[in-house]
Amino acid sequence: MSTGGAGKKYVIALDQGTTSSRAVLVDRSGRMVDVVQRPFQQIFPQPGWVEHNPQEILFSQLGCLTELVARHGLSAGDIDSVGIDNQRETTVVWDPATGQPVCNAIVWQCRRTAQMVDELCADPQVAGMIRAKTGLLPDAYYSASKIRWILENVPGARERAEGGELLFGTVDTWLVWVLTGGLVHATDPTNASRTMLYDIHRGCWDEGLLSLFGVPASMMPEVRPSSGPFGETSYPGVPAGIPICGVAGDQQAALFGQCCFEAGQAKNTYGTGCFMLLHTGREAKASTHNLITTVAASAPGAEGLEYALEGSVFVAGALIQWLRDELGIIGSAAETEALAASIPDTGGVYIVPAFTGLGAPWWRPDARGAIYGLTRGAGRAQLARAALEALAYQVSDLAKAMAEDAGGPLGVLNVDGGASANNFLMQFQADLLGCELRRPANTETTSLGAAYLAGLATGFWDGIDELRGLRADDDVFRRSMEPARAEALLAGWHDAVRRTIS
Ligand code: ADP
Fold first, then answer.
1. 482 alpha carbon to ligand 1 midpoint, in Å?
2. Which pLDDT score, from 0 to 100, does residue 356 have?
3. Is the pTM of this model over 0.85?
4. Cα(272) to centroid(ligand 1), Å
């Protein structure tokens, strides 16, 4: 029996994404009862720069929350707790005396600090030190250089930061600070692990990295467990006194929402690109394939930190969009499923979607896309099928690299994201990987993960066994293709990749 949360009906997940904020009402059975979503403005001040207005993030997120509460007539007595998952790395610096950010948030996609990172990390010893401590490959993507940019470019910011007058936070930290009425300045280890300032082995901010990037330690939030108390809501218009007790970066929240709690369990999100995470338990595995080592969200009571390997495919669902919007050979993404299934194979057509280079395990940013094996008989169906197969081949290469780094094969691959709805793609993926693919009935795993982290902390859910029990109705895909045929298809793909990068 649950010890906490008596009489409470719901957990609310605040899903703060890159293009929209959402508030999601989750009941005890793990069902998503309702969702409110609000987009917010993307700001592009210069080529390669991406910003968000932190106040707009806040108001879109609070707007979703208050609309959800009003729609269901909820009071604090109905809501057990709030969990937050968020776009990672995006950087906010604000003055706690006024509550005002000193400038717009610098978004993870923003490349303005690329040269700064190249210069600071040019020495291989420095790059190696960063990799060893943080598990990351030095890049402008992470928060460290974005904070430095703000301190160097906003008039007076460095002096104020050094005088202890400014705070830094990723978006979770900004939301927690505002929602708790400015009482709590904290983040969780999954978000901390994306700043490039956090030692993932010792579990603390690293003095050497703070000084390399010129970030005063007084700006940094306290790091608290992902599932545990972050304070209570205290903000006008929001029901007061609701515990905020789950926080995780979006990909780690999805891993948790997929019930990947143990080493060997993995999830892949098939969205515009793909994000794959493989739980590696208490061991932080270093990659020999340029994958990232990151912190996984832990259930309450975990001893020390838990880790995951992370890798991405740059172009996945975006290839399907390209067929629709640029080639115009399909009317909708979903059409590809029937088209692909209408033929027994692609007739030797392969698409290598290296629109923005090739990622793990190839690492060729200079590569560009290509289509091979065209014959007079190749048409819409062959191209649609080759596109879906290209998604699966890329994921298969990534999974293989991950399994080698982790020192053991994937047991099960849990899937989510828009393109995971495609049954042809899922079956072909299972055929290539030879492991079981599980697609949960609720593929909104990110919000679910944030809700689970919060509800575990309060006792709304008993423990991870109860959560596992909530996902009874998965679709399961198993290999039905002869292994020799899968190998031959993969060999054809690798041949196409080699021709693309040679
Ligand atoms: P993101 O969160 O990255 O924006 P989503 O998870 O919403 O992406 O997934 C949308 C992507 O999935 C789009 O690129 C779209 O082309 C692709 N997609 C959606 N449905 C299907 C489908 N049935 N088959 C293949 N691709 C699909």
1. 28
2. 84
3. yes
4. 6
Q: How far is the CA of 108 from the centre of ligand 1 (A)?
A: 21
**Tokens at residue 5, please?**
């949360």
- The pLDDT of residue 497: 96
Residues in the chain where the model's pLDDT stays below 50: 1-3
Ligand 1 atom with minimal separation from the 19 CA = 4
At 183, which helix (H) or strand (E)?
A: none
What is the 8-class DSSP label of residue 248?
Answer: E
Q: What is the pLDDT of residue 6?
A: 63
Distance from Cα 2 to the centre of ligand 1, integer Å: 37
Distance of CA 113 to the CA centre of its chain: 21
The confidence score (pLDDT) of residue 3 equals 47
φ, ψ of residue 331 in degrees (nearest 5): -90, -30
- How deeply is 252 buried, as exposed, middle or buried, from its count of CB atoms within 10 A (0-12, 13-18, 19+)? buried
**Residues enclosing ligand 1, CB less than 6 A?**
271-272, 317-318, 320-321, 333-334, 336-337, 417-419, 421-422
Closest CA to 230 of 285, 276, 188: 188
Reduced to 3 states, what is the DSSP secondary structure of residue 493? helix
Q: For residue 477, which phi and psi values (nearest 5 degrees)?
A: -115, 130
**Residue 354 to residue 350: CA distance in whole angstroms:** 12
Residues 500, 502: Cα–Cα separation, whole Å = 6
Instruction: Please identify, by atom number, the ligand 1 atom nearest to the C-alpha of residue 417.
Output: 6
| Most informative mutation of 18, 335, 391, 422 for ligand 1 (most atoms within 8 A of CB) | 422
12 forms beta bridges with 25, 82
* Separation in Å, CA 452 to CA 38, 133, 224, 258, 456: 23, 29, 16, 10, 6
Letter string b/e over residues 182-207, b meaning 16 or more CB atoms within 10 A of that residue's CB: eebbbbbbbbbbbbbbbbbbeeebbe
The per-residue pLDDT for 4 is: 52
pLDDT digits (tens, 9 = 90+) for 245-289: 999 999 999 999 999 999 999 999 999 889 999 999 999 999 999
The Cα 464–Cα 121 span in angstroms is 41
> Which atom of ligand 1 is nearest the CA belonging to 270?
6
Taking the centre of ligand 1 as the mean of its atom positions, its distance from the CA of residue 271, in whole angstroms, is 5
463 C-alpha vs ligand 1 centroid, how far in Å? 32
Residue nearest to atom 14 of ligand 1 (CA): 317
pLDDT digits (tens, 9 = 90+) for 158-186: 999 999 999 999 999 999 999 999 999 99
For ligand 1, atom 15, name the residue with the nearest CA: 317
Distance between Cα 239 and ligand 1 center (Å): 35
The reported pLDDT for the residue numbered 1 is 40
